[in-house]
Protein: DUF998 domain-containing protein
Amino acid sequence: MQQATQKRELPERMSWARAMIFAIGFFLLAAILVGQIPGYVYNAMTASSLVEFERGTFSLGLICLACFAVIMVIEFLFDPKPVISPVLMAGVGAIITIVGLAITVAVSVTGYQSFPSATTSIAPLLGGKFLWFQPNAIDLIAVGLIILFVGLATVFYSVLAMGERRNPDRRDLGTTPAIRIMLIISSLLLIFFVYCYNYNPLPASVQSVVLNIVLGVSVFLALGAFALRLHYLMRPARKNTMAGLYAVGALGLAQTGALLLVFWLVAYPLLTFLHPLPVLGPYLTNCTRASVIPGSCSFSQDAGYIIDAVITSSFFGAMLAAIWAWKSNRNMVVVGGVVITAVIALTALVMHTSATALPTAMMLCAAILIVATVWSMAARREFAVVGESNLGCLGQWLVVGTCLFIYLSAFAFFSMANFAAEETPPNIPNPINTAGATDSFVMFALFAVLGAIQFFFLARNRYRV
Structure:
């Protein structure tokens, strides 16, 4: 009895290769949640115009609520006691897909990508064009893409639920041929885009169209591989993961999305209320024209610091809670981690829908979805084969060197994104298609290859942790 108790108390053992995949996933989450998002919110709040803040909070709030809706679809379809027929859910998903596709196509064709426009006048209040909203406060392309995503996800999981009703098998099938094919094609298309984006080998008349189609297919396949892998990951332990998945959706995504939409809704009325106050007004607001309030107002740097600290502390606390819960609730941490990573990938897409930013936004979306899929592949318990080799000097270099190469290649990859300079200043210079070298691409290609070689030997030797 004593030996059995001691065996149960031992921490879970895993290979160094598997541990490194988990570390990369958590590092990505920490870098974006604790670093990128708070910095973006601060810059948007303190900019000379709140248009970017309005568009960002609206799009981010909608994608959080959309992902919560997809989680509820999964709960309804795959709960041990499902309450909605998959056929009915598939029909609803098809209607939502058609609506989202129609909005996206109509907005793209007409060029009416933002609402309200400069000429809109619908119940104007506080100097706004629609109520108190300033021009371009709502990104209609983001709305169409989000609706399309919810519809496709609903149809996808409804079809899987129909298959489960015919087949009682609940095993984790691991990385099936369908997942491998989608993941490999998505990765190859992403590599093709990165090369063409930096060196422009195609004719100028067709390159933009071809690359957008390539990236669209890459994102679609990466999303399909992730959704299917998440389904298999949860299937054998569904009773233990459904509650955690619902907690991530209801307590995390739904509340975050609702709070962001509240900020989007009350930003300008709040500025109007705060500006004339004796002490809080000058401390929290900054208005350039006294005759145009709140249209010329933004939040002060002090207000940005306060919100930045709240967001950073909240995400940092969530990361610490995940570390604390790893031993007792590993399934919840893994499922929650990969789901939030997918949400971040979709956020990168829907928050950058302008013509100049969309290609690299799709590039980041596909890349992060691929990382989330690989992470979910490593989370499979059957992957946790512990070798008998001690790490040794060579193994230590393989671990440290692989981490270093992945870190540097990730810096270079994210530096290729063509967003606003004040939002994501590049870490590595990347003069695209000029007389000089494309520094980010060369650095990314070099260190990605070196990191892949080292990781291959690390996984092959199966060093134990």
Remarks:
- The mean pLDDT is 82.
- The chain has 14 helices and four strands.
- Residues 2-169+238-338 form one domain.
- The CA atoms of residues 409 and 445 lie 7 Å apart.
